[in-house]
Design brief:
With about 350 residues, the protein is of the alpha/beta class. The protein is built from eleven helices and 14 strands. It has a domain at about 1-175 and about 200-230: Rossmann fold (3-Layer(aba) Sandwich), CATH 3.40.50.720.
Length: about 350
C-alpha cells in the first residue's frame, strides 16, 4: 500500500488520481474538514489528521511500502513563519521517524526549488548546489531547506529516501487554488493590472506526478532531483493568458525596486483583508533572480519530460473555468505561438 501526505493539494490529488488509475491501493492523509470529493473514495482510504501529530503519522505508516510526503504549508507571507516551520520541518521529522519505525520501503520527499542556496542572479542551479537555510530567502524556502537536510541525513543513516524539487507548479486540478492558480484567477477576473519584470521556471503538475512515480522505482537513496519545466517571463505568461481568456493585456511591468516597495505595501493590505496576495516582496525577489534550473538529471534518470507552459496554462484555464472558479468572456482560445 502507498501513503500520500498532503493528498488534497495540487500535486497530491493529481498523484492520487494517477496512482489509482495504475491500480495501486492508496492511503491518503488530509486535514480534518478538507474536501475529498475529488477522490474515488472506493479506491482511496482517507485518513484525517495532522502530520505534526507523531503518533498519528506512525499509525498512518502501518503496512505501507512507499510514502509520498507532499504535505506542506506553502505561504509567501512573512507572518506565517512559526506555522510554516512547524508543518514543513516538524511534520517532515515525524514522517522520517514513522518511516524508520514502520520499516517503510521508500520515502519520496517533495521539497521545492526554493530550498536551494541562493546564487548570483541569472545563475544555473542544478543538484550540485547546496541546501543551507541561512543562505536561502523566505520563510517557506528556509523551512524546506531544513527539511531536505533532515531527509538527506536520514538517507545517510540507512533510510531509502529521495528528494524531489519541482519548480513553479502549474496546470489543472488546482482545487485549493495554489499561488499560480490564484494569479490566473486574478488575471481572468480583470484584477491583475500590473506585472513584474522577471521570469521563472514553470512545470506542469502532471509531469511532476509522473516523475514522482518514476522516482519511486528508479531514484537511488540520498539523491536529489530537480523537476523543472520551461523558463518564461511574466510578460510572456500574461500575454498567453490574454490570448486564452480574451482579458485585457497587462501593460505595466514594474522594475524590481518599485515592485519591492509596492508589494510590501500591498502585503499589509492582504494581511488585513485576509485575502491572497498576488505578489509579495518574496515573490518579487524570486521572479527577479532570473535563475535557470537544470532538470537534465531528472530527464536522464527519471525520464522527466515537461510539456510547454502554453499547454499547461490552456489546460489550467479550461479546468478553472469548468470548475467555476473563473468565467471566460468568450470561448477558450488557442494558446499557440504569440
Amino acid at each position: 500500500m502507498i501513503l500520500v501526505t498532503g493528498a488534497s493539494g495540487h500535486v497530491g490529488n493529481v498523484l492520487v488520481r494517477e496512482l489509482v488509475n495504475r491500480g495501486e491501493k492508496i492511503r491518503a492523509i488530509v486535514l480534518p474538514g478538507e474536501d475529498v470529493s475529488m477522490f474515488k473514495l472506493d479506491r482511496v482510504e482517507i485518513l484525517r489528521g495532522d502530520i505534526r501529530d507523531r503518533d498519528f503519522v506512525i499509525k498512518a505508516c502501518e503496512g505501507i511500502e512507499t510514502v509520498y510526503h507532499l504535505a506542506a504549508l506553502i505561504s509567501i507571507m512573512p507572518t506565517m513563519k512559526k506555522q510554516v516551520r512547524s508543518v514543513n520541518v516538524g511534520g517532515t521529522e515525524n514522517v522520517i521517524h514513522a518511516c524508520k519505525v514502520k520499516h517503510v520501503g521508500k520515502l519520496i520527499y517533495t521539497s521545492s526549488i526554493h530550498a536551494f542556496t541562493e546564487l548570483e542572479p541569472g545563475s544555473v542551479i542544478d543538484e550540485n548546489v547546496s541546501f543551507n537555510p541561512a543562505r536561502t530567502s523566505g520563510v517557506y524556502g528556509k523551512s524546506k531547506a531544513e527539511a531536505v537536510l533532515n531527509v538527506l541525513t536520514a538517507a545517510r543513516e540507512g533510510l531509502n529516501a529521495v528528494v524531489l524539487c519541482p519548480t513553479g507548479i502549474i496546470g489543472p486540478f488546482d482545487y485549493k487554488l495554489s499561488e499560480m492558480g490564484n494569479m490566473i484567477r486574478l488575471f481572468a477576473t480583470g484584477k491583475l493590472r500590473v506585472g513584474i519584470e522577471g521570469s521563472f521556471d514553470f512545470v506542469d503538475v502532471r509531469d511532476v506526478v509522473r516523475s514522482e512515480i518514476e522516482a519511486s522505482i528508479k531514484a537511488k537513496a540520498g539523491e536529489v532531483y530537480i523537476l523543472g519545466g520551461e523558463v518564461i517571463s511574466i510578460r510572456e505568461l500574461t500575454d498567453i493568458l490574454h490570448q486564452l481568456t480574451g482579458r485585457k493585456k497587462v501593460d505595466a511591468f514594474l522594475k524590481s525596486t518599485t515592485a519591492y516597495v509596492l508589494s510590501a505595501m500591498s502585503t499589509l493590505y492582504y494581511m488585513i483583508s485576509k485575502t491572497k496576495a498576488a505578489f509579495t516582496p518574496y515573490t518579487v525577489h524570486t521572479l527577479t533572480r532570473n535563475y535557470r534550473y537544470s532538470h537534465e538529471k531528472a530527464s536522464r534518470i527519471l525520464g522527466h519530460c515537461p510539456r510547454k507552459v502554453s499547454e499547461s496554462l490552456k489546460d489550467a484555464v479550461e479546468w478553472l473555468s469548468g470548475y467555476g472558479i473563473i468565467r471566460l468572456q468568450s470561448k477558450l482560445n488557442s494558446a499557440g505561438p504569440l
